Amino acid sequence: xxxxxxxxxPMLLEDHVNDLFQSxxxxxxxxxxxxxxxxxxxxxxxxxxxxxxxxxxxxxxxACGMRSIxxxxxxxxxxxx
Length: 81
Description:
The chain is an alpha/beta fold. The chain has one domain (about 10-75): Histidine-containing Protein, Chain: A (2-Layer Sandwich), CATH 3.30.1340. It has helices spanning about 10-20, 25-30, 50-65; strands at about 35, 40-45, 45, 70, 75. Strands 1-2-4 form a three-stranded mixed sheet. A hairpin with a 2-residue loop joins strand 1 and strand 2 (about 40-45).
């Protein structure tokens, strides 16, 4: 039988991922943002490399478990390091 998520769980998840981003040693990751809407998890912001985009997604996945994550982080070479 599937677990039922309470309404507050997505907000707690969003806060947890945003806390992970804020505690990162990488300034670009600290500028990223996670939003949740129901069971959807969306990552947003700009970074200077695909590697940082993937790193942020892995950080979010570690907090979200098997949830699907929409990684809308934009890679721009002119993003400050």
